[in-house]
TrEMBL record:
The keyword Nuclease does not apply. Residues 8-309 form the Orn/Lys/Arg decarboxylases family 1 pyridoxal-P attachment site domain. Belongs to the Orn/Lys/Arg decarboxylase class-I family. This is Lysine decarboxylase. It holds the Pfam family OKR_DC_1. Keywords: Decarboxylase, Lyase, Pyridoxal phosphate. GO terms for molecular function: carboxy-lyase activity.
Amino acid sequence: MKKKVSMPLVEKLIAYSGKGPVRFHMPGHKGGKGLPQRLRVIMEKNLFRWDMTEIPGLDNWHDPQGAIEEAQRLLAELYGADRSFFLVNGSTSGVMAMLGAALEKGGEVLLPRNSHKAALMGVILTGAKPVYLKPQVDGELGVATGVPLSEWRKALEQHPDAKAVFITNPTYQGFCPNLSGILSKAKARGMKVLVDEAHGAHLAFSKRLPSSAGEFEVDAWVQSPHKMLCSLTQSAWLHLKGRGLDRERLRSYLSLLTSTSPSYILMASLDAARAVMETRGRWWVEKGLELAERARKLINQKTHFYCVGREARGRGGVYDVDLSRLMVNVSPAGYTGFFVEKVLRERFNIYAEYADFSNVYFLLTGGNTWDDVAKLVRALKRFPARKKKLKPVCFPADLPARALDPGEAFFSPAERVHLDAAPGRIIRDSVIPYPPGVPLLCPGEIVEKQHVEVIREILRAGGYCQGIKNGCITVVKNG
Ligand SMILES: Cc1ncc(COP(=O)(O)O)c(C=O)c1O
C-alpha cells in the first residue's frame, strides 16, 4: 500500500485557514482580507513566479541600485525619513542593527527593562553596557506600563557618557512614552536616539493616535508593517534621519543579520504595503481604530471584563495609548488571560494576538470587520463573573542584580540546572515569558527565589517561558 505523504505544518495551516477563524492576531492583513482586491489577486497568483533571486534587472538587497533602491526611496518619502531600508528578518534585525551602528563595545545605552528581547540581543551582539530603567508596574493589570519622564531625566543625568537611548513606542500593550521629552534631553547630551516602533507603523496615519518617531529628530526607528499594516510576516523596515548613525556601519550590521538570499516575496509585500499606505493609509488606520473603539465601549458596557482605554494616559509612566489594540483585563472577573484566550480559540473560533496571566490582547486593523467585533463581544459576554478575583502575577518590582554584562555572560561556558537549584546562579540564557517577549532574567543577572516563583506561576497558569526546558534553566558554569 502506498504510504501517505505527511506534511504536518502544511496540514495545520490548511486546517486553520479552512475553519474561517476570526483573526485578531498578526499579520495585519488578516488572511489577505484587508488588501485591495487587485493587489491581493496579483500577489496570490504570482507567489511562485515572483519567488526570485538576484538575477540581472531585479537589483540586489545587499547593494541596492535599481528597483529595490527606488522602492526604499518611495518608502522614505512616505515616512519623512532621509533613508529607509527594507528588512526581511523582522524588526528584530533592525533593532539589532541600529544598536550595532550606534554603539561600540563597552558603550552605554539607556533602555527600559521591559524592552523586547531583540534589544537585548543587540546589546549582546555589540558588547555594549546596558543601563536598564525600571518601568512602573500596574498592580491591577499585572504588566509593566512605562518609565516616567522624570526617571528618564534622572538616568540621563546619572549617565552623561551614555552613547544612546533606546525607546519603545508603543509597547506590545499599546503604551507610549513621552518621546519628545526624552529625545530633547538625550539630544542635548549628544546621545543617539533609537526607537523600536515595531508595533507603530500605523501611528503616522491618524491624528487620533500617539505620535510616531518620524515626527521628531530621532536618529533611527524600526517598524514591522506585518504587525499593524498589510505586509507579510517577517517583513519590516528601518528609517534614518540625519547623519547621526554611521550608514556604512549600519549596512554592515544589516548584512550580517540577513540571508544572502533575501526573499523577493517579502520585499514585494513591503513595496505593496507602502503603496497601500500611500494611497489609502488613513482609511486603513481609521477603520481599525473605529472598530477597536466600538469594541472597547461594548466590552466595558456589556461584559464583566475591563478593556483599557484613554484613561490609562498619565498613569504609571504611560504618556499616551494606542487605541487600535484591545487590552482586555480579565483577572478581576476571576479568569486568567491564558484561560480566556484558550476558550475563545477552542469554543468560538476567535484567535487573540496573545494572553498573559491577567489580560488578553486583540489587534485591529483595516483587515478586520464589524462582524469580527460583534463575534468577539458576543463571546466575551458568555463569561460570567467569578466570585474570586485573581491576583496578577507580576515581575518582581526590583530589577535583578547583575553580576556580568549580558555579552560577557552570553559567551561564557554554561550548564543546565533545575529551577530549584537556580537561586544565586548567574543567567546565561535569558528567561522570557513569550509573548510579549520581555525578559524576566537577562544574561548576567542573578536568579532569586522570587524569579523562580514567577516562572512557576506563569507555567502553572498555562503560559510559556523561553529559556525553560524540563524545569531547567541555563546558567554560567561555576569555577
Ligand atoms: C516591541 C517589539 N519590538 C520588536 C519586535 C520584533 O519584531 P519582529 O517580529 O518584526 O522581528 C517585537 C515583536 O513582537 C516587539 O514586540
